[in-house]
Amino acid sequence: MNTTGFENFNSQVITPFIQMLILIFVLLDIAALVMLVYSLKRAMKYRPNFDLGIKKARKVLTLREKMVMERWNSAVAKLAIDSPEAAKMAIIEADNLVNDVLKELGFAGEHLADRLSNLELEDLKHDEEVFVAHRLRNELTSTPGFVVSVADGKKTVAAYEAFLEELGLLGDQMEHAG
Fold first, then answer.
1. Looking at residues 28-56, what average pLDDT do you find?
2. Distance of alpha carbon 141 from alpha carbon 83, whole angstroms
3. 91 and 18 in one domain?
4. Is the pLDDT at 82 greater than 50, yes or no?
């Protein structure tokens, strides 16, 4: 038996062929892995976003909420001055803010009173308080010489605050009136 011919054929033809196949399959495996990672990365934007009832620890603040907070803090800061004129300005600012918020949320009406009367949300507890606060604001702007006390100003701004909290636009991060 002549095994040297087979060993010679094995070492010269088969072994390099097998090594070449191994190299090709390793390169194909690497290419497949790269394509898999790329496909998964691209597919992530199409995955469904399941809400499992887990609240995120940090609330992301939208630009609208930031604007509401800034305007609200400006109105509340006027109450700290502790004068009837400052209370009047705080009421007017709070009223304008509620009006703008309801307008932005799509409630119909030309004025705040119209928008409030168009509210059909039975679960709002403070809509009547806001009606009363809005009437006081109308008295302040339409009756010359009408003066509001600081205590009434704080009570009125607190009504606007409770209403905005019910709408979910004010929360624990806000300064509180009164």
1. 80
2. 17
3. no
4. yes
Q: Is residue 135 part of a domain?
A: yes
Residues 168-177 have pLDDT tens digits of 777 654 444 4
Q: Output the pLDDT for position 120.
A: 65
What single-letter DSSP state applies at residue 80? Answer: T
Q: pTM of the entire structure?
A: 0.60
> Would 175 be classed as within a structural domain?
no
Nearest to 114 by CA among 98, 136, 125: 98
Write the secondary structure of 64-113 as one string of H (helix), E (strand) and C (coil). HHHHHHHHHHHHHHHHCCCCHHHHHHHHHHHHHHHHHHHHHCCCCCCCHH
φ, ψ for residue 90, nearest 5 deg: -65, -45
* Tokens matching residue 54: 């887990």
Same domain, 69 and 156: yes
